[in-house]
């Protein structure tokens, strides 16, 4: 959950730095409060970046990191901590069932692609930003 937060924070800060300062000056002249500036200037300014970060995050949703989970697994928590990459490793390399492991890995890729296409189409409907 937190492993990409630093990257997203840097991208959000860059998006905030790219907002035209004259918008803030005009809002100050109009008497806008800080909350109104955030709602009417900051959020619309970073919305395209937030949509792209969401799409990229959903694209890597099922790729949680094999090594982290595998190193923390033991017989006591195996039933609760089994994820698709560790299952593919155990079936494919430890049990030498390469064809089934390939099919499970392909299924994982198809599910990832379906999620990516769904979120991308939702982003295109909600905003004018999408990956394709």
Determine the structural class based on helices, strands and strand pairing.
mainly alpha
H/I helix tally: 7
Could you give the distance between the termini?
26 Å
- The total domain count is 2
Largest sheet: none
Mean pLDDT: 90
Please provide a written account of the structure.
The chain is an all-alpha fold and 132 residues long. It folds into two domains: 1-59, no CATH class; 63-132, no CATH class. The chain contains seven helices and no strands. The two termini are 26 Å apart. The mean pLDDT is 90.
Provide a quick synopsis of the model.
With 132 residues, the chain is mainly α. It is built from 7 helices and no strands.
Protein traits:
mainly alpha; 2 domains; 132 residues; 0% strand; 7 helices; single chain
Secondary-structure topology with pairs:
Elements lengths: L4 H13 L3 H9 L4 H26 L6 H7 L5 H4 L2 H11 L3 H29 L6
Helix pairs in contact: 1-3, 3-7, 6-7
């Amino acid at each position: 959950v937190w492993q990409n937060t630093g990257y997203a924070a840097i991208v959000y800060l860059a998006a905030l730095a790219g907002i035209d300062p004259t918008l803030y000056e005009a809002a100050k002249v109009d008497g806008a409060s800080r909350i109104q500036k955030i709602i009417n200037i900051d959020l619309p300014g970073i919305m395209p970046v937030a949509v792209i970060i969401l799409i990229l995050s959903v694209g890597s949703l099922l790729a949680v990191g094999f090594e982290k989970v595998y190193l923390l697994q033991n017989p006591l928590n195996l039933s609760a901590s089994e994820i698709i990459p560790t299952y593919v490793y155990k079936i494919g390399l430890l049990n030498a069932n390469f064809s089934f492991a390939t099919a499970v890995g392909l299924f994982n890729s198809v599910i990832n692609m379906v999620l990516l296409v769904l979120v991308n189409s939702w982003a295109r409907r909600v905003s004018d930003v999408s990956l394709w």
